[in-house]
Write a structure and sequence with these properties.
Length: 182
C-alpha cells in the first residue's frame, strides 16, 4: 500500500494509532488496579480461615438432571484447602459412573488466597482473592470467563457459588446451591 499523497490513508492510520494507544492505557490501568486490592480494613481481605466452612461433602441441588448428581468434596490440609467436583451418573441402584472430575484448591500466596481450578482437557484457571463482603468471598480474574467466582456462606449446611462475567459480550450470572451431605 502506498501512502504517497494519500491524505485519507494517513488520517486512518493516525486514528488507528490514537485508538490503539487509548486502549493500551485502559488495559494498563486495569492491571495496576487489579494488584491494588489491599485495604487497611481487615474485613475486606480474604484468608484461608474464611473458607474453612467449605470442609466436607456437598451436593449441588441446582442441577435437576435425572440420574445425575454433582458432588463437591473439600478438605483442609495445613496451609491449603483442596477440593474435587464430580458429576456422577446412576447406572443402577447403588452403582454410579463418574462422568466428570475437576480438582480445586485454595492456596495462600503472600497476602492473597488463590482459587485454582484444574479440569481435564482444559487450561488451569487461577482466581486471586479480591475482597470479602460480609459472608461473600470474591475471587476475580478479568482475563477468564467467568470473571468473578463468589462463595456465599449461607449457613453451616448451605452455601451458594455465584459465577459472574461476560460471555459473548453479554453479562452472565449463574448461581449454584450446595447443601452439606454426610
Amino acid at each position: 500500500m502506498k501512502f504517497k499523497g494519500n491524505k485519507i490513508s494517513f488520517s486512518i492510520l493516525g486514528v488507528l494509532l490514537f485508538v490503539s494507544c487509548l486502549s493500551s492505557k485502559k488495559v494498563d490501568s486495569e492491571i495496576q488496579n487489579k494488584d491494588n486490592v489491599k485495604s487497611t480494613n481487615s474485613d475486606t481481605l480474604v484468608s484461608l480461615n474464611d473458607l474453612y466452612f467449605l470442609e466436607g461433602n456437598w451436593l449441588d441441588t441446582t442441577q435437576n438432571v435425572i440420574n445425575k448428581s454433582y458432588y463437591d468434596t473439600w478438605q483442609i490440609m495445613k496451609d491449603s484447602i483442596f477440593g474435587k467436583s464430580t458429576l456422577l451418573k446412576a447406572i443402577s441402584p447403588g452403582f454410579f459412573d463418574t462422568i466428570y472430575n475437576e480438582s480445586m484448591s485454595m492456596i495462600e500466596l503472600d497476602d492473597r488466597v488463590m482459587y485454582v481450578i484444574r479440569s481435564s482437557n482444559k487450561p488451569l484457571l487461577a482466581y486471586p482473592s479480591f475482597k470479602k463482603l460480609g459472608d461473600s468471598l470474591i475471587f476475580k480474574n478479568i482475563a477468564e470467563s467467568p470473571q468473578e467466582v463468589i462463595f456465599i456462606n449461607e449457613s453451616k449446611d448451605h452455601f451458594k457459588l455465584l459465577l459472574r462475567g461476560l460471555n459473548d459480550g453479554f453479562k452472565r450470572e449463574t448461581i449454584y446451591n450446595y447443601y452439606r451431605v454426610n
